[in-house]
Amino acid sequence: MDRRAYLGVVAAGVLAGCGDIDPPAEDTDDGADPADDEDTPPEEPADDEATPDDEEEPADDEAEHDDADEPELTEDERVALERLEEGDSLLGEALELYAESGNADSFLDVRASATRFRWVPIARSVREANDRFDRAAEPANSDQRARIDDLRDVGEFIRESARTQAKVGPAFEAFREVLIAHQGDSISTVTWNRFQDRVEAADERMESLSSVSDPEVADASEQLTVEEYAGKVDQLAAERDALVAVADERRPFTEGHRAWIDAERAYRSRSWSRAAREFERATDRFESVAERLERDPVDHEPFDRVYQTFRTIAGTLADAAIEYEASARAYEQWARGRNRAENREEGDERRRAGRRILRDEDVVTDIPSVRRLENYEGP
């Protein structure tokens, strides 16, 4: 019998001999002052009615029990632990270098806009960490070796993330150059080629990163969490996917832009039939681009701004081309002498509608062909 319970029984027996007081059958709150029974050891509380002091004791005993059960490390195991923790610290330094290379507060804050990101210093720190893991493996026990394997995987993830980051940045920079190139009247094949080459390089690196990704191994490290690991993979994948989507639209976008420029020139030269045909072609190409690029925004404002601008140009020119095509067809009928007043009025009305679309969207106002159409007052 537990010592406390035993004393309680003895005390109850003593009190029973001094009078006809029956001990309470259960713990009831009758308003009695606890001081009245201060000489009587309390009954041992039920498991679900433990006092705060009684609740703390098992926790202490449990902690002592856990410490007693934990085997003491051997000298070899202590050496292994020290070395693997040194390696883990070097992985932390690699993450700090990651943030520094991207001019950010943490490696999760480094995004595609870090166009001058350098991965070599990060890989060097990971290599030094692996050296510590090599030295830790021989004296390590089986559990330590399992942790070392996971830490190696964490290091590989950091290195592959850095190498992917170093490809995504230049691809994003080339994307901005493509956007700038389409602000003129010509289409730069060189700019598009550079963009596609960089996107392909980023895509290849992302495939390598995906092949080694296993966020659960982050549990072995003190330097990052499973959520941070998975978050970085998701960031890079989202940016890569958006860049690949734009690169896939090269042909329809450039065809649409070329048709738009040809249509604008034909429209102002009063070649109504050709203008209508080219505006229709521009609408078809730009509408398909805008629809296929409709996606959730990338969670990075500088990137998403460029992406949405590119998509908005396509959508705006498609909408305007619809109005200018209708205007050209009405002017064509007017030129042929059919319902002259009515056709002229419709041509003017649809031209003004197209101009309103262009003027309402700032992202197209600097395109020379757009400005010329806005200034054209009709035949």
What are the main properties of this structure?
379 residues, mainly alpha, 2 domains, disordered N terminus
What does this structure look like?
The chain is mainly α and 379 residues long. Helices cover 71% and strands 0% of the residues. The protein is built from 12 helices and no strands. α3 runs antiparallel to α4.
Helical run tally: 12
Q: Determine Rg (CA atoms, Å).
A: 37 Å
Largest sheet: none
Helix/strand structural class: mainly alpha
Counting structural domains, the number is: 2
Number of strands: 0
Low-confidence stretches: 1-55
Which range best describes the helical content: under 10%, 10-25%, 25-40%, 40-55%, 55-70% or over 70%? over 70%
What is the arithmetic mean of pLDDT?
Answer: 86
The first-to-last residue Cα distance is 110 Å
Order of helices and strands: HHHHHHHHHHHH
Strand residues, percent: under 5%
Write the layout of secondary structure elements.
Layout: H1 3-17, H2 52-69, H3 75-101, H4 120-137, H5 142-181, H6 189-212, H7 226-248, H8 250-268, H9 272-292, H10 301-335, H11 340-359, H12 368-375
Region (Disordered): 14-85, 335-355
Biased composition (Basic and acidic residues): 76-85, 339-355
Biased composition (Acidic residues): 23-75
